[in-house]
Amino acid sequence: MAALRQTPLTCSGHTRPVVDLDFSSITPEGYFMVSACKDGKPMLRQGDTGDWVGTFEGHKGAVWGVALNSDASRVATGAADFTAKLWDAQTGSEMQGFQHKHIVKAVDFSPDSSLLLTGSNEKILRIFDLAKPDSDPQMFTGHTSNIKKVMFLPGGDTILSASDDKSVRVWDRRTGQVARSVELPAMPTDVEVHSDGSTLTVTHGKTVSFRSIESLDEVRVYTAPTQLFSASLHPSKSVYVCGGDDFIMYKFDYATGAEIEACKGHFGPVHIVRFSPDGELYASGSEDGTLRLWQTTVGKTYGLWKCVEATIEGKQEQTAA
After folding, report:
1. Among 32, 79, 105, 218, which has the minimal tally of Cβ within 10 Å of its Cβ?
2. What residue ranges carry the coiled-coil annotation (predicted)?
3. pLDDT digits 0-9 by tens, 167-222
C-alpha cells in the first residue's frame, strides 16, 4: 500500500518573504503562532489550523524577528526600523517600543515574560525590564558581527546568541560575561532550544548539529542535500525537520540521520521551520511569502486535516479541509 502524500496547508496574507516564526505553549484556547515578514506586518494565527487572528501594524520596515510568550498574551518583534516592539496579542495594540541604533534581528521573552531580550546589527544584546520600560537595558558586548538569534535559556539566568562572526555564545546574566562559546565552520543560520531544556539545534552551511546546552558540545551532527537556513527537533526527539535553499522540506530520523521525507510545496527558499508544542505539525516560512503547515504523522485527523482516503491512480490521497 502506497504511503499517504503530505498535503501542507498554506497560510497566505503576507506579501513578502516570511523570515521567522514562533509558537506559544498550549493554552486553554489551544496554541498560537506568530510570523515575521519583510512586509513589516507580523501576523498572529491559530497554531493548529493556521487561521488568521490578527495583524500587528506599526513597524516602518521589514520585521526580522518575532517571539510569542508562553501563554500567547504578548508578542515581541524586531525590525529594520531600528526598533523592537511589545504588543498585546489580544487587542493587537502596541504596548511599548524600544529604540536601537541598527536593525533588530532577533527577540525573545524571559520564561516569566518580565524581560525582553534583543539582538541587533549593532553586535549588542540588550535585556529590557518590561516593568520599567524607561530604564536603561542591560547590555552584552563582544560579538564582532551581526547578531542573528538570541534566546533565554531554561531558568532565565543565562542567554544565548548566534552571530555572523560564526560563534554561538552563552552569557551569564548576572556578570554580563560569556560563560561558554563555540566557533562554527560557517555562519549559524538558526538556533533552537529544545523543549527538554538540554538540547540545542544549530544549522550552519549544509549541517544540522545537535548540541548540549550545558557544554555546547556536539551530541549528533548530520548533513543535508542543500544549504540550510533552519531546523527544528520534534518534542519527542524522534525526528527533525529542516529547510533551505532548494525549496524542499526535509524530515530525518534523529537517531540515525536517515531521510524520511523530502516534500516540495514552497516556491522559494525556506527561511524558518518550527514544530508545534504538541509535535503534531511543523510550520515553515519561505521567500515565497507563505507559511505552510505540515503534518508530522501524515494521514492523521488533526486541525484542518481530515483522514479521508481515496485511491487516485493507485495512490492514497489525504484531504485537507
Report:
1. 218
2. none
3. 999 999 999 999 999 999 999 999 999 999 999 999 999 999 999 999 999 999 99
